[in-house]
């Protein structure tokens, strides 16, 4: 368990921890009592520590004369350092389009209300985001806060990059969020972030090309003859990425980690899913190598009847294109629902944040119900705030309704090193199989061996 840090707040946020959070973090009542006792003991020990430092043998009166100037100098140094420290909070994010605009709107409101603690937003390309954070924060050069999915929380928590948050979380804050979203921010007995959005994939379809959305993969494939006449495809999605492939992987019963948390990539079910994806390409149902820009182009030009993507795809749809979004189809060979990864994006605090109280105040504001409703309306983010859906506009939004419905058929994205290391090898394997250069089972075995070797290698 993580002891309370000296700079953590001592108000109700550190005492009245919600039972929901305690349960999710696996705390026992005895541990909670021990933590409080440890905090009190820490305060008692720290206060007299300066005056009790060992010194050369001197008379008590003279020692007091020597000690007091030292204390005065120390206090002066601390005050001067505080005056020179940069005010405000810096937050890194990788948002684009409507999500970026919605975040900026909320930040502007914060800055209007708190001119003494301005919030600075810094956009960082997603591809470089994780590496920049990992290298910058330990050196004190990174942001105070950043927004990122939960899959790196375990890695960053273990390496000391993140600040634990449970001591700021009271009943009201915990009650804002759905249990699943809050649990996604927990790791090894601590809470490491406040959830901003939950994300998964769903099925977009052009209403001028599809009379009714396909409920099964057989129905999806049945669109192919008509689309071939248009030199198009039944479906386009990021099929060379594990994230895009995940609905088929889980729909066939495949996994990345088993129920015990052990690596479980090379399974017959995973091989069947990869072979299915290859057949979609071979039969002209889907393009061989599709990623974001191509997927959007095909959909906008009427060359893709459907697209598998997330809420962010809305901003890529051209004006005038008739479309709707619905849940993913059932995988016909297995009878199981296609199940994408469920990701939770959270606001996380750097362990090197300059003013942690101010940083958490910003986190609190950016994840409030008011901010969540704002993001849901402006960016159509699927927000984890349960009360946001009491807003009439949010509750009636067909995009949000579709993605909320999809949440029933998702698989929570694992946290930890294995998940972080699997993306690149899996992408390579998918590319080889979809191009017809390799067999699924062999490639999956190679992925599992490669990731396993990373996990046992010394850091």
Give a short overview:
This protein has about 450 residues and is α/β, with parallel strands linked by helices.
Task: Give the helices and strands, then pairings.
Elements: H1 12-15, H2 19-25, H3 29-46, H4 60-84, E1 89-93, H5 97-113, E2 119-123, H6 126-136, E3 145-149, H7 153-158, H8 171-175, H9 179-184, E4 186-187, E5 190-191, E6 193-199, E7 202-206, H10 217-221, H11 224-228, E8 233-236, H12 242-251, H13 268-282, H14 292-300, E9 304-309, E10 323-326, E11 330-331, E12 336-337, E13 341-349, H15 356-366, H16 369-379, H17 392-395, H18 398-406, E14 411-412, H19 417-434, H20 440-456
Parallel strand pairs: 1-2, 1-3, 8-9, 13-14
Antiparallel strand pairs: 3-13, 4-5, 6-13, 7-9, 7-10, 11-12
Total separate domains: 2
The CATH homologous superfamily of the largest domain corresponds to Periplasmic binding protein-like II
Major β-sheet annotation = 6 strands, mixed
SS-based structural class? alpha/beta
Mean pLDDT: 83
Number of helices: 20
Return the CATH class of the largest domain. Answer: Alpha Beta
Q: What can you see in these coordinates?
A:
The chain is α/β, with parallel strands linked by helices and 459 residues long. The chain folds into two domains: 87-199 and 343-395, D-Maltodextrin-Binding Protein, domain 2, CATH 3.40.190; 202-339 and 416-456, D-Maltodextrin-Binding Protein, domain 2 (3-Layer(aba) Sandwich). Helix content is 46%, strand content 13%. The strands form four sheets. Strands 1, 2, 3, 6, 13 and 14 form a six-stranded mixed β-sheet that branches. A four-stranded mixed β-sheet has the order 8-9-7-10. A hairpin with a 4-residue loop joins strand 11 and strand 12. The chain is globular.
């Amino acid at each position: 368990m993580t002891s309370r840090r000296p700079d953590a707040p001592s108000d109700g946020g550190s005492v009245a921890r919600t039972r929901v959070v305690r349960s999710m973090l696996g705390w026992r009542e005895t541990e909670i009592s021990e933590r409080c006792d440890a905090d009190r003991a820490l305060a008692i020990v720290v206060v007299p520590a300066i005056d009790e430092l060992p010194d050369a043998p001197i008379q008590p009166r003279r020692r007091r004369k020597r000690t007091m100037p030292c204390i005065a100098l120390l206090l002066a140094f601390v005050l001067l350092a505080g005056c020179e420290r940069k005010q405000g909070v810096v937050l890194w994010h990788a948002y684009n389009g409507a999500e970026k605009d919605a975040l900026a709107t909320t930040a502007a409101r914060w800055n209007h209300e708190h001119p003494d603690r301005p919030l600075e937003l810094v956009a960082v390309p997603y591809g470089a985001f994780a590496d920049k954070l990992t290298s910058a924060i330990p050196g004190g050069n990174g942001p105070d806060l950043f927004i990122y999915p939960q899959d790196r929380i375990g890695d960053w928590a273990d390496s000391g990059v993140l600040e634990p948050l449970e001591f700021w979380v009271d009943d009201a804050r915990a009650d804002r969020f759905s249990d699943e979203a809050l649990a996604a921010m927990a790791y090894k007995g601590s809470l490491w972030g406040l959830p901003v959005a939950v994300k998964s994939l769903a099925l977009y379809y052009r209403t001028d090309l599809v009379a009714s959305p396909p409920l099964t993969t057989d129905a999806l494939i049945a669109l192919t003859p008509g689309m071939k006449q248009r030199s198009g495809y039944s479906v386009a999605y990021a099929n060379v990425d594990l994230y895009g492939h995940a609905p088929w992987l889980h729909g066939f019963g495949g996994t990345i980690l088993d129920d015990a948390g052990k690596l479980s990539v090379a399974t017959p079910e995973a091989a069947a899913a990869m072979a299915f994806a290859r057949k979609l390409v071979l039969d002209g149902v889907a393009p061989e190598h599709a990623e974001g820009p191509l997927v959007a182009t095909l959909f906008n030009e009427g060359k893709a009847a459907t697209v598998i993507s997330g809420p962010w795809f809305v901003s890529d749809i051209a004006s005038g294109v008739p479309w709707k979004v619905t849940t993913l189809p059932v995988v016909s060979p297995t009878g199981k629902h296609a199940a994408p990864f469920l990701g939770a994006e959270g606001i996380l605090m750097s362990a090197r944040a300059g003013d942690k109280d101010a940083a958490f105040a910003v986190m609190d504001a950016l994840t409030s119900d008011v901010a969540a409703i704002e993001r849901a309306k402006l960016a159509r983010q699927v927000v984890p705030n349960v009360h946001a859906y009491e807003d009439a506009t949010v509750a009636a939004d067909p995009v949000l309704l579709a993605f909320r419905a999809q949440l029933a058929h998702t698989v929570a994205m694992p946290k930890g090193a294995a998940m972080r290391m699997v993306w690149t090898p899996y992408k390579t394997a998918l590319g080889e199989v979809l191009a017809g250069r390799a067999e699924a089972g062999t490639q999956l075995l190679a992925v599992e061996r490669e990731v396993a070797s990373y996990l046992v290698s010394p850091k």
